[in-house]
Design goal:
3-stranded antiparallel sheet; alpha+beta; about 55% helix; elongated
Amino acid sequence: MRKEVGCVSAEERDEIQILFERRNGLNELAKILTPENEELYERLIKDMGVTSTRFQNWWDRMAGKYQWESTPDGNWEIDFNDGRIYLVTTE
């Protein structure tokens, strides 16, 4: 089930979109990079950790600011076209 629970500003939407795209790009890079290139591999792992933390912090910050509805088995998704936030559950 997908239920609209809120909306964020254009600036907030842009912030999470940048983090989302960066996280996806790093995940794709991780698929082709091998640990043999130790320096680059270590930088990738560090950047993945920082980006994932910033990504989660954004969701935590926005959830606190806007008080979105949540459920233990659900997660939020954003529509990057209009900044609407949806609660997605398995029901």
